[in-house]
Predict the 3D structure of the following.
Amino acid sequence: MRIHNPALTRRQVLKAASSGAAAAAAAPWLRAASEPAILGGQPVRTAPFPRWPNFRERDEQALLPVLRSGVWSRAKVVEEAERRFARLMGAKYCLATCNGTNAIFTAIRALGIGAGDEVITTPYTFVASVLPILLADALPVFVDIDPQTWQMDPAKIEAKITRNTVAILPVHILGGICDMDRIGAIAKKHNLRIIEDACEAHGGEWRGRKVGTLGDLGCFSFQTGKTLTCGEGGAILGDDERLMDRCRSFHNMGRPYGSLASTSGEGHLIVSTKCRMAEYQASILITQMETFDAECQRRSENAAYLTERLQQIPGIVPRTDYPEVTRTAFYYYGFRYKHEEFDGLPRAKFIAALAAEGVRASRTLGVIEGKPINKEGCIRDALRSKAYQRIYPKEKLANYAADNECPECDRLVPETVGFHQSMLLGSRDDMDDIVRAIAKIYENRRKLVSRL
Ligand SMILES: Cc1ncc(COP(=O)(O)O)c(C=O)c1O
């Protein structure tokens, strides 16, 4: 494990951390702490972190003509946004959608996935990775996570493949990246499709290639909190023209496009929906793209700085990435909070104490709001539905919960804490404040346990 001061071993740092003056010498951010703000002391900071979403004059200048044009439905501005996003990500084609959920649904239906099919995915994700599988009457099959990276564990995928498996839906969660070499090899061996859920990973790179271009189709979200946003919005990337035409057709009421152009005179070829992006959304997306790369760079640098320091505080275990990840996308900066190292201070109290210091942390990281997704009510609702009772064998449904247990994910969810990507756009002083606040709570852990 890397430590900030190369002259010190981790053990020395940890020892120093629990002994006032030596702590300051070993790592200045671990200096003897003052009274925690939650107990009436001075907070580490009162200034806000950078706000998100962020707009500049450029966004306004570009948006006004679109509003004034009266052309608000999908037209030239959306097409321009598609071209630019495809170029930014290194994909041949892009289709913009109204949001990420419908990007995934469109991808699933364009690949012909439906009743009786099984799709392999992860339980450590936002519900919107799985809802589209259920909406297609297909069966989500959950593979447990890698406890270090928090991504789908590739070593556990093959055991889940049956003759009904048609696709793998890896989710690059929190902007980290799944092991796409191993997932790609498994998909190839078993003739499975790959739909990447890159809704949290814009700009992330695996061996220098952007996520969303590593499978058959890659799906993105531009919802407000995301690192590239237009309030609500989504996109699908792909290199297969015919498949992308199917996506386009599905997202626009089955109208025929490109290679799907009909000679029969029919206007609506497939059962489909409508989930088009609007012109004003696309306008915001275009101008937001202009600052995107610089923002990614800043987040990466600040995250590396944070990791170097936070991993020296006992009980703080940052999420890691595979060595092949050449750029993490940092939707959230996540770490495990080991309450036992904080004398048993519960996570909720740790987060409350941090907030009092002026540092807002999240327990859910925008991912798991209740239970891990394999245990959420929407799964139970689907399994009990008339359609599922008819489509799937009784035994499969009866064994579903046991077959889809994911103990690593169950262990992770109660330990997660994270910072939204907007905080990583702050200055070095802002990062130091985060470290100071956590170190202050660590130093005061005993007092906090007894008084909170
Ligand atoms: C992992 C993941 N998948 C899918 C989505 C769905 O995107 P949207 O909210 O744009 O529908 C989100 C974001 O909210 C997400 O975080």
Summary: The two ends are 33 Å apart (CA to CA). The first helix runs from residue 10 to 17. The pocket of pyridoxal-5'-phosphate is lined by residues 99-101, 125-126, 128-129, 171, 197, 199-200, 221, 223, 234 (CB under 6 Å). The chain has two domains: 10-53+292-366+412-451, 57-290.
